[in-house]
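This section describes the prediction task in plain terms. A model, or a person checking by hand, is given the sequence of a single protein chain and must write out its three-dimensional structure as a string of tokens. No templates, partner chains or ligands are provided. The sample shown here is typical of the held-out split.
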Amino acid sequence: MTLKERIVGFFAPIVEPYIIEPLDMIDDFLREEEKKVLFAVPKNKLIPFSSTTKFSSDEYNFTNDIRILSVMSNGYEATGVTDFGLVKYSDSGSLHYRDSRNPIYAFSGTVLSVSPYTAGVENQFWFVRYGTVSGGNLSYTIEPLEEAIVIGASIKYGMQLIAYITNDATSSITAPTPPTLLFDSWDFTEVVPEFSPVVMLGDDITSFTNAKTFIKTDEELEIAESELGLQRVRLENYQVKLKETMDKFTGKITTYKTELETYMAKLKEPKEEDIIKIQKYSSQVSAYAAAVNESVNKKQITIEGYMKVLQLLTEKYKESLMIIESLL
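The expected answer:
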């Protein structure tokens, strides 16, 4: 099973309708999380999994994306500095000048620079390489870190799913049009109850927008999770209001049909064609109520799927923190 398949597998059972849309993003999530994990782990913990290269010059150009763990020059361990620091510390007239027993190095882009450098002196560095994603897998990973990378990418994927589901979870319910009673000869004037969808308030929509912004821009996971927590509360309140509205609507429909049946029972010698028409109308009222119920149920299912993803995200987030902490 590839890393991508593992990530999709976390969510597929609970949000299958949404599983396809952001699927291509997983490759990016894997690359991002690999870098994040490799930077979070102390260098000394990565040394056993590192590669090493020797070179006899003051610079070394890389063709791969790497993290430098340690640099030795002329047998002495070099101290990492910025590009600016490299200029300052290599200036023999500077108070900060380093001699060969206190070498320094700077890593910028794809170039490793070491100073001071004496012709014929051999430099050596240790590094870990970032992988590339192909076929749903990273081309190179450090096995003990793989789980942390998968879980981290899963969190990002889950948050992206949330962003997609949010659009459906917060959109207004499109209620079907109620039937109209067209009998000029009748004095039954009651109008079929119309379902009025529950609409989210402006503050609710703003909360969802904020959360989606944090998710898409990959701000701190804690911030995004906090916003998602607010969404959970707002959706729970929305579900309560939706159920209350649906219960009232169902009660009104039941009352309306009872009144319709009572009216029919009081008619004296009704025409057969009128009986057929009213029976057809009664069926239309039932179909209307069923269509409203179906729309509300779909909304509830979407929200329940949203809640399940939130719960899974919370679990994966805590699991990710535990793994990272164990590596520190």
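For orientation: The chain has a mean pLDDT of 76.
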